[in-house]
Specification:
Layout lengths: L2 H10 L4 H14 L10 E5 L4 H10 L8 E3 L6 E6 L4 E7 L8 H8 L5 H20 L2 H4 E6 L12 E3 L6 E3 L4 E3 L2 E3 L1 H8 L1
Parallel strand pairs: 1-2
Antiparallel strand pairs: 1-3, 3-4, 4-5, 6-7, 8-9
Helix pairs in contact: 1-2, 1-3, 2-3, 2-5
């Protein structure tokens, strides 16, 4: 296990096939672009899975800096835009890694996985992780350069105090209801 994968696992909390998938995407990107210190690199992730944690850990694309954009299409697709090179790569993780695991994963989610099946699942998961980490890029990743407009840089907006609950919120996300400027939560409560 290399240092980047170990750091990603520490960030994520455990190793799993999803983390390994994100690691392979991030490793590929890192070979072409340096890690983001600020917003030089922007990742548009088309999923909200374990793989995104590897992207955050290894590439420095995070929601907090505004250079991680989540568009949950349920796809293992990552478009990585380099502001320095004005270039973007769309990377699709095409490897069929969950072979043999789907039925066990379904049983696990339903709370129906027995002790023997848990052992079987752990063995399969370890094998899948090992396969992902050792496979060739071309067997796992479909990579193409895409032409996209430069993603907006993160903006900082002033805060307002909600006239209903008293909590501060970002001005641009405010709403007006019953003559008051309110946060989204209070707006939904007042209108519904």
């Amino acid at each position: 296990m290399d240092d980047d994968f170990q750091k990603a696992a520490e960030f994520h909390g455990h190793t799993c096939p999803g983390l390994a998938m994100g690691y392979r995407v991030a490793k590929y990107v890192k070979e072409h672009y340096p890690r983001a210190k600020d917003e030089e690199l922007v990742c548009i992730a088309e999923n909200k899975s374990c793989s995104v944690d590897a992207i955050q850990s290894i590439l420095g694309c995070t929601a907090g800096k505004g250079n991680l954009i989540l568009k949950d299409n349920g796809k293992q697709v990552f478009t990585v835009y380099s502001r320095d090179k004005d270039k973007a790569l769309r990377i699709y993780f095409k490897g069929n890694v969950f072979r043999g695991l789907d039925a066990l994963r379904q049983k696990l989610s339903l709370g129906e996985l027995g002790p023997e099946e848990k052992k079987e699942m752990e063995g399969l998961r370890s094998k899948v992780i090992e396969d992902i980490l050792s496979a060739k890029d071309e067997d796992l990743l479909s990579v193409r350069e895409v032409d996209i407009p430069a993603p907006e840089k993160a903006r900082i907006y002033p805060s307002l105090k909600c006239q209903e609950c008293g909590e501060a919120f970002m001005e641009i996300l405010g709403r007006t209801a019953k003559g008051k400027v309110v946060c989204k939560d209070c707006y939904e409560k007042m209108v519904c």
